[in-house]
Write a structure and sequence with these properties.
Blueprint: E1 2-8, H1 18-27, E2 32-35, H2 44-52, E3 58-61, E4 64-65, H3 71-84, E5 89-94, H4 98-103, H5 113-129, E6 170-173, H6 177-186, E7 189-190, E8 215-216, E9 219-224, H7 228-245, H8 253-275, H9 279-284, H10 288-293, E10 296-298, H11 300-312, E11 317-321, H12 325-335
Parallel strand pairs: 1-2, 1-11, 2-3, 3-5, 4-5, 5-6, 6-7, 7-8, 9-10, 9-11
Helix pairs in contact: 2-3, 3-5, 5-6, 7-8, 11-12
GO molecular function, one term: oxidoreductase activity, acting on paired donors, with incorporation or reduction of molecular oxygen
Organism: Streptomyces qaidamensis
Protein name: LLM class F420-dependent oxidoreductase
């Protein structure tokens, strides 16, 4: 199992520690470093900055929002950074939910998310292969655009710049069983949001027969500490925000996933508390057991024991949301045993 460093997205501003952490991860033998975006910092600019200050570690987005860019624009970002980094780019994509897509990006949430995702990846692949001008008679991502308000002057194009790698890895963030199943067919890897080594059945039968070389790269908060309950608080804070605030009360994919993992009553309570403005109560309502099973928190010996269950399943890459160089080093030492 390879290790990656997940840096997420910025809060109020850039973290001065991200580049040093990425450099430390590279020295420790980590395979990859990942950035994200929601409705603040973008994913590609920080990754480019990190690329300029590292030399070997692979660079991934986990995730870049599909609604933020047309598929050709995303392909341009990816092929540009792949050239500048010497072939280190991995493109992780996510569809997000209606609240973000319509509220922030000002676009309609697709009526058929599976079809929209499939078309998006199809266009990306065409750009990266550069075998012919991009053409797709798609419902959501037609190329050229021939809608009722089109000029009729658009024509199929292929990128001026020759991509460095036609097989640049494309990974998808997927939560529902049908979405995960499609991901195994159209992508090179999957980025689970919550991964529990003891509950692979939550994602359906799609994981039973994965293609050769397919990446399964979940993110998990990792923290070496003496007090497990205290170490779980950042995990619970993240879960409270995602389950309570990253979606509408009637449509929240993160809350639905928690429900499928056996915590339906707790998920709905967290949603209710968060939407009522009782955010601290929502965080405290996150069960320690749920936060614990999707993270690696506690003393070194406890993390070492729990790490074995992550290695035994389909996970190929553990993307650690790790807060400090000490935790990064301990995780690297334990994973090299």
């Amino acid at each position: 199992m390879r290790l990656g460093l997940a840096l997420g997205y910025w809060g109020r501003g850039p973290s001065p520690g991200h580049v040093p952490l990425a450099q430390a991860a590279e020295r420790l033998g980590y395979d990859s470093v990942w950035t994200a975006e929601s409705w603040g910092s973008d994913a590609f600019t920080p990754l480019t900055w990190i690329a300029a200050h590292t030399s070997r570690i692979r660079l991934g987005t986990a995730v870049a929002q599909m609604a933020a860019r047309s598929p050709t624009t995303t392909a341009m970002h990816a092929l540009t950074l792949d050239h500048l980094s010497g072939g280190r780019m991995m493109l992780g994509l996510g569809l997000s939910g209606p609240q973000v897509v319509e509220g922030w990006y000002g676009r309609p949430f697709p009526a058929s998310p599976l079809t929209a995702t499939r078309e998006y990846v199809d266009v990306l692949r065409q750009v990266l292969r550069r075998e012919a001008p991009v053409e797709l008679a798609g419902r959501f991502h037609p190329h050229p655009y021939r809608g009722p308000d089109a000029t009729g002057l658009g024509k199929p194009l292929k990128p001026i710049t020759h991509p460095l790698r036609p097989d640049l890895p494309v990974l998808l963030g997927a939560e529902g069983p049908k979405n995960v199943a499609q991901t195994t067919r159209i992508a090179d890897g999957w980025l689970p949001l919550y991964w529990s080594p003891t509950r692979p059945e939550v994602y359906g039968p799609a994981l039973a027969d994965l293609p050769e070389g397919f990446l399964v790269a979940p993110m998990a908060q990792v923290r070496v500490c003496d007090d497990v309950a205290e170490g779980l608080l950042p995990v619970k804070t993240m879960l409270g925000f995602y389950i309570g605030g990253m979606g509408h009360a009637a449509r929240n994919f993160h809350a639905d996933l928690m429900a499928r993992m056996g915590y339906e009553e707790q998920a709905r309570r967290i949603q209710r508390l968060f939407l009522e403005g009782r955010r601290q109560e929502a965080v405290l309502a996150v069960p320690d057991a749920f936060a614990d099973e999707i993270s690696l928190v506690g003393p070194r010996e406890r993390i070492a024991e729990r790490l074995e269950s992550w290695r035994k399943g389909p996970v190929t890459d553990l993307l650690a949301l790790a807060p400090d160089p000490h935790t990064l080093r301990v995780l690297a030492e334990l994973n090299s045993r």
